Amino acid sequence: MAETIIIRVQSPEGVKRITAAKRETVATFLKKVAKEFGFRNNGFSVYVNRNRTGEITASQNKSLHLLKIKHGDMLFLFPSSPAGSSSENMDTSISQGLLRPLGVPHVVEDEIDQYLIKQDGKIYRNRDQQLCRHGPLGKCVHCVPLEPFDEDYLNHLEPPVKHMSFHAYIRKLTGGADKGKFVALENISCKIKSGCEGHPPWPEGICTKCQPSAITLNRQKYRHVDNIMFENHTLADRFLDFWRKTGNQHFGYLYGRYTEHKDIPLGIRAEVAAIYEPPQIGTQNSLELLEDPKAEVVDEIAAKLGLRKVGWIFTDLVSEDTRKGTVRYSRNKDTYFLSAEECITAGNFQNRHPNICRLSPDGHFGSKFVTVMATGGPDNQVHFEGYQVSNQCMALVRDECLLPCRDAPELGYAKESSSEQYVPDVFYKDIDKFGNEITQLARPLPVEYLIIDITTTFPKDPVYTFPISQNPFPIENRDVLGETQDFHSLATYLSQNTSSVFLDIISDFHLLLFLVTNEVMPLQDSISLLLEAVRTRNEELAQTWKKSEQWATIEQLCSTVGVPLSGLHEYGAMGSSTHAASSAMWACQHCTFMNQPGTDHCEMCSLPRT
Fold first, then answer.
1. Does residue 32 come out as left (phi exceeding 0), alpha (psi in the -120 to 50 range) or beta?
2. Is 510's pLDDT higher than 50?
3. Alpha-carbon distance values, 363 to 38, 101, 186, 534 (Å)
4. Is the pLDDT confidence value at 233 over 60?
5. How far apart are the first and last CA of the chain?
6. Mean pLDDT in residue range 428-456
7. How confident is the model over 548-568, as a mean pLDDT?
8. What is the chain's Cα-based Rg?
9. Residues 6+ apart with CB under 8 A from 531
10. 74-79 sheet: strands from edge to edge
């Protein structure tokens, strides 16, 4: 066996110890250095001396022994990229109050995170007339600004805040004299580390180097999102209409944006602007999601509208009294708030949508993806409750270590190790009947250790990213209600809409999705201008798109379904130019075949154009 040596490598950010073989080649050693320090390319140089003399390069094709590099020697690493050197990144981070730890990859965080990093975040207080004994320019313990993570301040808010914001938590970690130089937000792993060569693979062998640590569940002190806000009540009412009409539970994805939540220091709010309802099978007691072939297109269209998928929503409603319109209050502290199966589903969604974070060696930490449940409240009316699951729950779900209990929805169960999978021990702390704190094995596990509650609100002054009409366009995947998206429903929507502004008519999230995803005339490649008009609320751009051949073809399709369109010409929704209409594809009224522009007879049935 080759003799192993340990070589110290010093960089502008710290020292790492590299294990190597005595007769290992320089090229192999430099690859280890690159991996240890998080360099993807050869963006660094290694020298024998601190004054950058005696460079070690892979082209030397020699072993470490021939270069007289011995056990315990110190080498010196300098990043070679002037634009993105570690020292410059370090200076920039220090100026912002944070320092990206050694080995953490450079990532681009969300806009809201970049904004909050630059904020002061401190809680400023006015001079207390009774307790402050100093002048107007002085400060004392009674009026000095508080840090955003001050627990006494958060507990005295109305209502009290149990969880500090994620950015306040980061300020707490990086508030020392070292400015968080050695802070790294590690993602929990429940899997055996690969590459351990000292023993056979599991289940024949395991050691302390590759064995994952046991997990003790703690209630998370911070949350990645501090508030969920629906832009208006109509948005939620249209979603609830499915349950009102069928009695079956329903599911949807929340599309919106992340903004600053000013009620909590350095807080983040998830604003919901639209709800997309994917294919699903719902009953009174269950929900089953089906494969959605349009999922990627919906995300793409939402991105062009300035939106993103921020969460999911589902109903758990049972009618109590149909005459009074009340619902059953079934989820409370005496039963459960989220079931184990719902926690696992939420954890799965959060793992699919990680939170980009520059303080994590993996480039991501936690998630901003939220869960909203429509259920009965204490007053037997429909309430919207917001939740997330903890990062510990995300790890258990990601590594397939958590199962639901069949007969007790409020309990989860940590899997036991098998020959196929090693599962670390999972514990939680509880209080016994004598008032003593005890540690319990998570078999079973109360899921309240995994849940983080989030306030869900509606604004006093409604906001409308997509203006709501009295006769809105049908929502997708509601065929069971007889509500279908086709050109007949489009023509009906246009004929009933009395607005004189084309942008208001076309600014419907579900209508835009239909224009892009319909099978007869999909506009995915030619709708970017319209989406930009909707995003920026630019009527001029919308009018420009309205004069295109694509909209003229849509008009022709609508005119073949037998819906009176006279009202449309009054405000110009169907008032495209004659040139555009004549140069657009047209649908035969007899066989509905789409014909090329300029033809007088149908190419399918040969009947004249009417």
1. alpha
2. yes
3. 11, 11, 10, 33
4. yes
5. 88
6. 89
7. 73
8. 31
9. 301, 304, 305, 512
10. 14-21, 4-11, 74-79, 44-47, 55-56
pLDDT at residue 87, rounded to an integer: 38
Two tokens, residue 463: 């906001």
DSSP letters, 253-280, are EEEEEEEEETTSTTEEEEEEEEEE--SE
3-state secondary structure 77-128: EEECCCCCCHHHHHHHHHHCCCCCCCCCCCCCCCHHHHHHHCCCCCECCCCC
Side chain identity, residue 36: E
Percent of the chain with pLDDT over 90: 48
Q: Give the Cα-Cα-Cα angle 488, 490, 493 (nearest 5 degrees).
A: 110
Q: Which residue has the tokens 């954890």?
A: 347
Mean pLDDT of the chain, nearest integer = 85
Q: What is the pLDDT of residue 100?
A: 52
Q: Are strands 164-165 and 14-21 parallel, antiparallel or unpaired?
A: unpaired
How far apart are the C-alpha atoms of 86 and 43, rounded to whole Å? 10
**In this predicted structure, what is the pLDDT of residue 453?**
95
Q: What's the mean pLDDT in 17-27?
A: 86
Six-digit token pair at 80? 């070679």
Q: How far is CA 397 from CA 404, 410, 422, 448, in A?
A: 11, 16, 14, 15
**What's the confidence (pLDDT) of residue 89?**
41
Alpha-carbon gap, residue 205 to 415, rounded angstroms: 19
Q: Tokens 């390069």 — which residue? A: 57
Give the residue, 464 or 609, on which the prediction is more confident: 464
How sure is the predictor about 590, in pLDDT bands with cuts at 50, 70 and 90? Answer: low
Residue 126 sits at φ, ψ, to 5 deg, of: -75, 160
The 10 Å CB-count burial string (b at 16+, else e) for 472-494 is bbbbbbbeeeebebebebbbbbb
Half-sphere exposure of 581 (CA within 13 A, CB side): 10
Tell me the CA distances in angstroms from 601 to 38, 89, 144, 553, one per residue in order: 66, 68, 83, 17
Check residue 22 and report its DSSP letter: T
Q: Which of 248-252, 540-544, 563-567 has the lowest mean pLDDT?
A: 563-567
Q: How many helices and strands (H and E) does the chain possess?
A: 17, 28
Mean pLDDT, residues 493-504: 84
Least confident of 17-26, 55-64, 101-110, 162-171: 101-110
Q: Which residue type, as a one-letter code, is found at position 487?
A: F
Distances (CA, A) of 238 to 250, 445, 489, 567: 12, 36, 17, 26
> Which among 45, 49, 70 is positioned nearest to 57, based on CA atoms?
45
Tokens for 332, please give them. 């409370």
Q: Are strands 222-223 and 164-165 parallel, antiparallel or unpaired?
A: parallel
